[in-house]
Write a structure and sequence with these properties.
Blueprint lengths: L6 E7 L4 E7 L5 E5 L2 E5 L4 E3 L1 H12 L3 E6 L8 E2 L1 H8 L2 E5 L2 H11 L15 E3 L4 E4 L2 E7 L8 E5 L2 E5 L19 H12 L6 E4 L13 E3 H7 L9 H12 L8 H8 L24
Parallel strand pairs: 3-6, 6-8, 8-9, 13-14
Antiparallel strand pairs: 1-2, 2-3, 4-5, 4-7, 10-11, 11-12, 12-13, 14-15
Amino acid sequence: MTALLPQVQSFLDPATSTYTHVVYDHAGGRAAIVDPVLDFDARSGRTAHTRADEVIAFVRAQNLTLDWVLETHAHADHLSAAPYVKAQVGGKLGIGGAIQRVQSVFKTLFHLEPEFATDGSQFDHLFADGDTFAIGELTAAAWHVPGHTPADMAFVVGDAVFVGDTLFMPDVGSARCDFPGGDAHQLYQSVRRILALPPQTRLFLCHDYPPDTRASQPMCTVADQRQGNIHVRDGITEAEFVAMRQARDATLAMPNLILPSVQVNIRAGHLPPAESDGHHYLKLPVNVF
């Protein structure tokens, strides 16, 4: 019997160059949403649900039941819309178990409230490497792929892999490794694990930052990456990759939304607790990062 191949619909948030993916078994079946985006205007501090509503509309139009909302990691470039998605269409929120390490680091760096838990309990499920789970008739596996952050996960669903920030399109390369707990050696090993999959395996990216010569794309194949990734194609050694990555990371500016994003995303997409006036506040640490 031929294995059921997952169907995938991808949605681009142009403001943050982020892709949200809906993976499902069939119309009228069951689904997971990977990396939903909350609109955030840093100038006004206002949030909106425009991008999340597009994803939710697709889920409803396909008559899908949502089993999971999956985060590949605690993003530093956009705020998660996971709580809003769950409130609208359900699903359990899952992330890698190493989120506990990320929470511990950023609780200190942001001097968060003493009550903030660093045990990952804000999420419904913490995945360990190799865990399997179901999306309707599809069998999925969680892979721990650290390097960009300690908690990065890739979700393998049939011939589709949701790689988070481990890889970008071949002409863009790979993710930075200079965030707290990042490690270029680990990222190289994580990438090679993914690229050991069959050549035709589809890799769905969390971001694309295309050159002017092409449009943004959400997906490529293992073969594309092995043949053409400018940072980590076949033939590039770990030592060469690490030297390139460390030199490149030293030149990169901080992501535009890292300070609001991390504060929200380590809380599973929730804003910090409201203060006595009923409003939520995000911190802006001075001379910390």
